[in-house]
Amino acid sequence: MAATSGIGLSAELTRAFSAAVETQNIRFIKVVIRNESLVPVTSVDVTGSLEEDLALLDSHLAENDPCYILARLDDPSSEWLLISYVPDSAKVRDKMLYASTRNSLSKSLGSTVFTDSLFATSKADVTPEGYAAHKRHQAAPQPLSAREQEMADIRAAERQAAGNVYEGSRARQNHLGDGKVGYKWTPEAEDAVKRLGHGEGNQVVVLQIELSTETLILHSSSEAQVNTLSSLIPASEPSFTLYAWSHSYSATKRDIIFIYSCPSASPIKYRMMYSSGALQIFREVKAFLETTPSFLLAPKKLETSDPSELTEQYFMQELGFSSGPVDDTHNSAMQRNAFARPRGPARRR
């Protein structure tokens, strides 16, 4: 197993990627490691197809400096390609640092969103021709082990479901819209989610899918401190957990965190069902909470295969919180200014 660097996402990157997923007008986000954190340094809008837009990347890539490029795919546009650009001429230390951080980047932003990855050692690898060669290699038939076939089936289910999720606010096709796709919700499950938006303090709601009816049901609902949260999440079956966490690390003082838990020992049928529905259910939860007085759903969806790792320190790292209390006014200003686009030229009168 490759070693990890321990470098996490910055709050700016979390917000930038969440906004890009929602608006769908961003083609590329360039990410670098700076001050032991992953930060966005520039973005490029969608102007044509992915192959056409790749020609725009040349000016954003340095000859000797590694970076990551988060690239939106065309079909479906809810999926992303993670490009690891590590030139042969880069410093050995930088090569090792970017190699050991790549998996952490994709996992932290949501592993189900990144359905492809490309390793580039020169600018030529990140061109329309280089990407075409990558796709030909991907399409070439390869013998799969039983385990690899299992994972391929899971990814196929995820891609099918993801096509129904990030389609923009005008075409969100689930049971909250035209009813064509999506899981049914029991009234108890829906009410439990909405109560989180009305309540105060630390509360947890655990949801599970009833496979026979493809219905989302309420597993449990209770008050819970961070240090007892993991004991309330099923250890051998997948689940979706919503944790309303009161804290002093951001101006909101209370965030509702969406957690997709899928233990490694879960049956394959369960894993496929849950992984293919995770993104869609996250959006449905968001829609429910938007109807409540305090809509505080954290923009980043957390994923884990081991509920015991869900600690206060884990939440702080994954959500980009600092270790000390945050001044409300300063934090609000930072959120408004982070990753802001430069102003355009003034209009002539």
From TrEMBL:
One of its GO terms (biological process) is barbed-end actin filament capping. It is found in: Cytoplasm, Cytoskeleton. SUPFAM superfamilies: Actin depolymerizing proteins. InterPro entries: ADF-H (IPR002108), ADF-H/Gelsolin-like_dom_sf (IPR029006), Twinfilin (IPR028458). It holds the Pfam family Cofilin_ADF. Gene3D superfamilies: Severin. One of its GO terms (cellular component) is cytoplasm. The keyword Cell inner membrane does not apply. The keyword tRNA-binding does not apply. Keywords: Actin-binding, Cytoplasm, Cytoskeleton, Repeat. Belongs to the actin-binding proteins ADF family. Twinfilin subfamily. This is ADF-H domain-containing protein. It comes from Pisolithus tinctorius Marx 270.
